[in-house]
Amino acid sequence: MSVDADISMREGRLVLEPAGDGALTLRFLGALDNTTVPFLWGEVERLGAETSGRRWVVDAGGITKMDGSGMALLLRVRCLGAGKGREVELRGISPGYRRLLERFDPAAYRTIERQDPCCQSLPEQVGRTVLQMWADFRIQVSFIGELAAAFGRAAMKPETVRWRDLWLAAERAGADALPIVALISGLVGLVLAFQAGMAMRPYGAEIYVANLVTIAMLRELGPLMTAILLSGRSGGAFAAEIGTMKVNEEVAALATMGLSPVAFLAVPRVVGLVLMVPLLTLFANVAGIAGGALMFLTLDYPFSTYFDQVLASAEIRHLMSGLVKSVAFAWTIAGVGCLRGLQTQRGPSAVGQSTTSAVVTSILLIVILDAILGTVFYFLQF
Amino acid sequence: MPAESDTLIRVESLTAGYGDRTILENVSFEVNRGEVFVILGTSGCGKTTLLRNIIGLELPLSGRVWIGGDDLVSADEEVLQRIQRRFGVMFQGGALFGSLTLLENVRLPLEEFTELNDEAIDWVARMKLQLVGLQGSEDRMPGELSGGMQKRAAIARAMALDPEILFLDEPSAGLDPVTSAGLDRLILDLSSILGVTFIVVTHELQSIYAIASRAIMLDREVRGILAMGTPAALRESPPHEKVRRFFHREAETEPVGPGGSGGSGNGRVRGGAS
User: Residues A151, A214: one domain?
Assistant: First the structure.
């Protein structure tokens, strides 16, 4: 038995020759690089599991070319041999490679085991989520407190407020958002009028489409659409801006200068948004009602009829209840955006996570707030 | 140094800049196979710009960059990828993928470009990490590591596919002297044993003396190469006042007042980023 196995793949070969007194020679020939190692690796593994030679002689003299994967293979051979209590002798390797190989301790590599990502059981997941939510809730409460304190200080000393940042936030969140807010509200008004018109037509009540659109826009849809749009547009931006500052340790730099991040970063943004959202809501209302008018005209009523109906139904209490809501929404959007930004962990995916979380949380809170305020206004007959 | 000294990289009258701001003008040099070629200079002289142009991240305003017979400047996407497969790059900030552990960072190129099985990839990746002294940190995220550790992990990732050329942008800046010396040793070993060609941007004087076979010094005012040669020659017979100052760690201005005595200035040549 001169040649036990001859695995010939491309340019790399492993030749096995039994030597005297139970020793086995593993002769590597040709290239030992990442084109040949994929094939040789499995053979070496099999040898390690099966062959019971007392001694392995690894002959590296025939290797023409070797890279990192080749060295990994030689190291693996040494480990496999040593694993079964065999002696492993490495021959014929150039002094340079030997020096490089000696940097690696085969013993340290014996325990490479891929760990399966452990699955959490359902109770464990539920428990973890509840703990997480509780911790999150506590942070939110303390943030609200901190924000209130910062507002208190800002009200006492208005000159400490960063007015430039405030106007910038107002411009970005307000003026820049006007076209998209108007477009979306206009379309919502149009679709609303269309659907309502189709449903009311059999009863000959199309004329009340104007009332419906007006009240729905003023009380509900104007504030809600504006808030949802801005939570994506501005809330997400706040979280991303502050989150990036947090990751770059700019927030830490502020803190070490003795500046409170909440007062410095959150207050201008919150104030800016609280000023802008009601204004945008007004524009949204107008755009929605105008969209309804467009639909109404196709029902062959004169425009003046629509206009009269709108004026008759647009009571000041409808408008005010919508605006009160929009102020509450603005606080939510800006607060959640800033909070999530300041909560950002380290690492590059952290900013994305806090932005997502800011948008999702603020939309959720907006819808909940909307329901609560709607109920309260109903009982107050407002 | 290797017996064969054929040219591996040739930069021909390269002019580089951003927009209308020209940073380098008419820069030409050659790097031989197996050399450790050091690009040095004071902060802001265009070291990193030169590097980014050689590795094909920026398109030069004019000039050619030959890497092993292929012109990088006129290369189409396919050729560019083929050329880029021949080298590994370590970026100044590490540029590790933050959502992957160190081991996964090094595994990534191996998974994408070789047919090695999972276990073999693990072995190769762990060996690379050990080469840079990061054994035991395989499962940590880049964000949890110090700057020096991130740098070393980035070198391990650049070496993952055993490229013939390694570009290192300030490998030893911010490292402690012991680790830094270990890194120099590694660079020399890889270059002499595996014949890897290194292009290293650095301004650590000790590291330059230890590793460089040749160096070029760039300068902001010249907008190009101020001097070229072995580090010893540059130090002993500096062709220019600025070269002398660099190699002797002297400030550009004389010390002000009695407090700043001592002759050698501080800071100037050891600035963190270029």
Answer: yes
Point out the residues of chain A with pLDDT beneath 70.
Answer: 1-10, 51-53, 106-107, 109-119, 348
Q: What interface predicted TM-score (ipTM) does this complex get?
A: 0.72
pLDDT of residue B75: 83
Is A346 within 8 Å of chain B by CB? yes
Sequential DSSP letters for B117-186: -HHHHHHHHHHHHHHTT-TT-TTS-GGGS-HHHHHHHHHHHHHTT--SEEEEESSSTT--HHHHHHHHHH
Chain A CB within 8 Å of residue B95 CB: no
Q: At B225, give phi and psi (nearest 5°).
A: -85, 125
Domain that holds residue A73: 6-109
Task: Provide, rounded to the nearest whole percent, the portion of chain B with pLDDT above 70.
Answer: 91
All structural domains of chain B, each given as residue ranges with its CATH number in brackets, are: 7-86+163-270 (3.40.50.300), 98-162 (no CATH)
For residue A104, the number of C-alpha atoms closer than 13 Å in the C-beta half-sphere is 25
Is A33 domain-assigned?
Answer: yes
Q: Establish if A116 belongs to a structural domain.
A: no
The pLDDT assigned to B34 comes to 86
pLDDT computed for residue B258 by the predictor: 57
Handedness of CA B229, B234, B237, B243 (dihedral sign): positive
CA nearest neighbour of A263 among A151, A370, A382, A104: A151
Residues A207 and A348 in one domain: yes
Same domain for A157 and A103, yes or no, is: no
- Buried (b) or exposed (e) across B166-186, using 16+ Cβ within 10 A? bbbbbbbbbbeeebbebbbeb
Q: Which distant-in-sequence residues (6+ apart) come within 8 Å of A332 by Cβ?
A: A227, A231, A362, A365, A366, A369
CB atoms A68 and B124 under 8 Å = yes
Last residue of one domain, picked from the residues A66, A83, A109: A109
Most B CBs within 10 Å, among A9, A10, A36, A37, to test the B interface: A37
Question: For residue B263, what pLDDT is reported?
Answer: 42
Listing from the earlier edge strand, what are the strands of the sheet with B87-90? B87-90, B165-169, B197-201, B36-40, B214-219, B224-229
Residue with more model confidence, A187 or B136 = A187
Q: Does B112 touch chain A (CB under 8 A)?
A: no
**Can you tell me the mean pLDDT for B232-253?**
82
Q: Is A379 helix (H, G, I), strand (E, B) or coil?
A: helix
Mean pLDDT score across all residues of chain A? 86
